[in-house]
Structure formats: C-alpha cells, structure tokens
Amino acid sequence: MHGIALVAYSSTAGSILPELQWHEEFIITKRTITLVRKGRMPETQVNVGRWEWPADEDAVTALFALLEPLECADLRRVEPDDAPDGGHTERYSITYGQKQCCDLHYEPGVSYIGGEWVVGPVQAFLRQLGIPPTIAQRYRMR
C-alpha cells in the first residue's frame, strides 16, 4: 500500500461531564489541514467548528515519507487483559490512493506493537502546526 492520500487523527473524550465531552478530527492532505470539533450535546461547552487552512507542503511530504514504508499488516493490536473503565479514545488512519486504509484504534488500555511508528510522527506533526489559540482552545471561553 503506497501513495498516501491523507492521514487522519481523531480523539474522543472519555468519562467526563456530557457538556464537556468532545470529538475532534484532524485531516491532513498534501494541500490542506482540516480540524473538525464537535460536542456531545446541544448545551456543549466545547469550542465546536470546522477550520481549514493551507498545509505546509514540505512538512506534509516529510510526514507522508515517514509513514509510506509502513506495512499495516505488521502492526499488531494488543488488547488489555482487563480493559479500564472510561478513558478517551484515539484513532490514526492512513488512507492510500486506492481507498485502502490502515487504521489504529486506541481504546483505553489498547496498544499496538509497532504503533509508535505511526503515533510518533503524527503527534510530532500536530504539535508543530501552530494552531491559533482561538481554534486550539478545546473549550469555549466563558
């Protein structure tokens, strides 16, 4: 599977008050970065919205180059013996040109053998985005 079309990272809040629960997704393509954030209920305190901005094409090319050689079949999901209650979830998804997907779904207590080769580069990329504070703020200011 080669020729990455996009990388997506999503996270969902765990066991917190419903008005504070969120789901957000970053979609990274060669040309754009999109962030979609939603709350769980109409009375949410989450800073909801959809934001899109031009990608730093060199940074995206570097990210895709790190992920390109990975073989999804080599990544092994490890389930916990006793899954913890609550906790947030994260999902890393690499979509290739022919709509083939490599998904890592981290529920509480789950890990992946080899998962660091996806998680590390994606998290490093997200940290360097320099998202404006009004967007980066997960909750609305009161």
In short:
By secondary structure, this protein is of the alpha+beta class. It is built from three helices and eight strands, in the order E-E-E-E-H-E-E-E-E-H-H. It has one domain: Mago nashi protein (2-Layer Sandwich), CATH 3.30.1560.
Descriptive report:
Strands 4-3-2-1-6-7 form a six-stranded antiparallel beta sheet, with helices on one face. A two-stranded antiparallel sheet has the order 5-8. Strand 2 and strand 3 form a beta hairpin. The chain has one domain (4-136): 2-Layer Sandwich (Mago nashi protein), CATH 3.30.1560. By secondary structure, the chain is α+β, with helices and mostly antiparallel strands. 19% of the residues lie in helices and 35% in strands.
Order of helices and strands: EEEEHEEEEHH
From the 3D structure, determine the CATH topology: Mago nashi protein
Whole-angstrom Rg: 16 Å
Overall pLDDT, averaged?
93
Which shape, going by the Cα principal axes?
Answer: flat
- Record field, number of beta strands: 8
* Total helical elements: 3
Strand adjacency order, main sheet: 4-3-2-1-6-7
Percent of residues in beta strands: 35-45%
Structural class: alpha+beta
Given this structure, which CATH class is correct?
Alpha Beta
Let me know the largest β-sheet.
Answer: 6 strands, antiparallel
**Stretches with pLDDT under 50, minimum 5 residues:** none
Distance between the termini: 47 Å
User: Per CATH, which architecture?
Assistant: 2-Layer Sandwich
Q: What is the share of helical residues?
A: 10-25%
Total discrete domains: 1
